[in-house]
Amino acid sequence: MKRFWRWCRLELREIKGVGPETLRKLLEAGYSTVESVAFASPQDLASDAGIGEATARKIVEQARRMVAGGEGKGGKLVQILPGREARRILQSIERVTTGLTGLDSVLGGGVETCAITEFYGPARAGKTQLCHQLCVTVQLPKEKGGLEGRALYIDTERTVRYDAIARIAERFGLNPEEACDNVFYTYAVNSEALRETIRGLDEVVKQNMVRLVVVDCLTGHFRAEYTGRETLALRQQLINRMIHDLLRLALSYDLAVVVTNQVHAQPDVWGKSEAPTGGHVVAHGVTYRVGLSIKKHNVRVASLVDAPALPPSPAFFAITDRGLVDVSEDEAAKGKVEE
Predict the structure, then answer these.
(1) 90-119 pLDDT, tens per residue?
(2) Distance between CA 78 and CA 75 in Å, rounded?
(3) What's the predicted TM-score (pTM) here?
(4) Which of 43, 88, 200, 257 has a CB 3.0–4.6 Å from the CB of 116, allowing a cystine?
(5) Domain end: 26, 55, 88, which one?
């Protein structure tokens, strides 16, 4: 850790305009990497670090030039690019397999990096199980659809089970102990802890080759803590900022961000109707939106609801002791699928 902080100081000092005093303020404010500075707004940087806005603006501009010249694909997108170059970079952005052929196809090849993918649905729909599986598949070799990286799991509902991760790892041919060790974990006890955890992830992500960040669940604490219409505006502002912090993280380090979301009933709508929590703020903030629903027994349906350039489409899967497995439409119609 001490070695990493020495490296952070050396890296930040390379930003033109960052002297010893400014460096101290940046580190104390949680800006430990060039990427964290490059993707910050000058206003936020000035406020957080206690420096002038003009100084902050110059520092951010210098940091963005450094990031744009690096190897990261997300960092290159902060500059103005010719269409051909932008297209090349966007088409080269990596994806991680879900371990489900059908869902991968619906998502255009898997869960995209430099983006936020939301999986929402009622209890028992398979959201957490899918997150468990992604924590394993992100470790797979690239030729098998993985990213050869680690995962970081932010739990807000105390639902993570490492025994399940171990069983899934064994199924995918990974060493269960090593696979579990590669899944970093933290429990966010309330909405403030969740927001602070997300804002402070740069160090852990960059130091440990994290390629997947999971937030399970995005809105649960906010529903419990911000009740009544008078708190709605503040709640939505905080969620909006948190989503932007997650997208900044995804772009900064070329990683995939996966969030789960709860649903709420809409009693004023005719028939049974459920909608994801968070309203327009979450809907506009995430890149991909997938709804999970219960069909029969252990069979589930994943429906792509929103994506930048993909049509709405369903995929079927079943929940088993060794993770999620593909199910054909005919098998889904019959009901329970054995492992």
Answers:
(1) 999 999 999 999 999 999 999 999 999 999
(2) 6
(3) 0.92
(4) 257
(5) 88
